[in-house]
Amino acid sequence: MTTTTTTSIISSTMPRPDFAAIANLVKTGSKVLDLGCGDGSLLRYLKDTRDIHGYGVEINDENVQACFKNGINVIQNDLESGLSSFGSGSFDYVILSQTLQAMRHTENLIKEMMRVSKEGIVSFPNFGYWKNRLQILSGYMPVSEFLPYQWFDTPNIHLCTLSDFERFCLQHGANILERRIMNGNHQVSFAPNLFGALAFYRFEQQK
Fold it and tell me: What predicted TM-score, i.e. pTM, was given to this entire model?
């Protein structure tokens, strides 16, 4: 794994609500693997707020370079090829943040997450959110803050609702430990599959 000692270029402005939600699911001092880590912003945030030991996996060249500049340990790799570079139980948490819906081999990746870590954390846009439903009733595919693409250029191929993901976990040996459903900065408790825009799940392999 490659590391760098250059000074972080990530801004210390107000944290993104999704970063804070994930941080609330992570114990201080944990060893964390972030899949599709982008420029390393989430790992940097977790390092600053939870003192984690973080590693990232990213395929995009520019994002990999940004990780180096931000002092983030990163491996350049395609998530679709699996996590064979990592031994079983290597991490406390493996995070897949707003990337699940863009994966082709969802089942294999979730299984690999449970293999290499004690717990997995995923976040994804809730396709059942009422604004998405309203756009579909109006005859259009949803476009929103968390689904910003038009139908013809979207990387999202496996959109799901909260109910879809929970049934998936039940069918694939993933035991859900905690669920947080957010709408902006607010946690949603009433009718979350209707009023929640972004979902966060913490899970482990069924024992």
Answer: 0.88
